Amino acid sequence: MENKKRNSKIRQFILDLKSYLSIESDYYQVLLVEKTTKIVSLIILFFLLSGLFLGLFFFLLLGLAYFLSSIYGKLITFWIVLGLIILFMLLVILFRKKIITNPILRLVLNIFDDKTFKGRKEDKDENN
Known about the structure:
Shape: rod-shaped
Order of helices and strands: HHHH
Number of strands: 0
Largest sheet: none
Number of helices: 4
């Protein structure tokens, strides 16, 4: 009789453990999907905004060239615009860590912040 109770309790414990692990597995899968979705949406947003920015930059430079062509002449104006483009490219290359790498790194680290995992563990501790 005692043996049956013990076996029953062990079986119940194993079933509860399987259920708990299944729930935890589902939780982390949902968490992974959420974070992956955030990263993919940031990548798409980055490409859309950079495309729009490049188009805007192109038209602004053409407008500047058209405006300056009446003052300096067409050939010199396009050399000035070319110089501005090269200057802009050099600035981006020189300050790429400050203006590109660090903000992207900060965004990704904020997405994968450990607060979610810590908060989950603290909730468990409070329930006990």
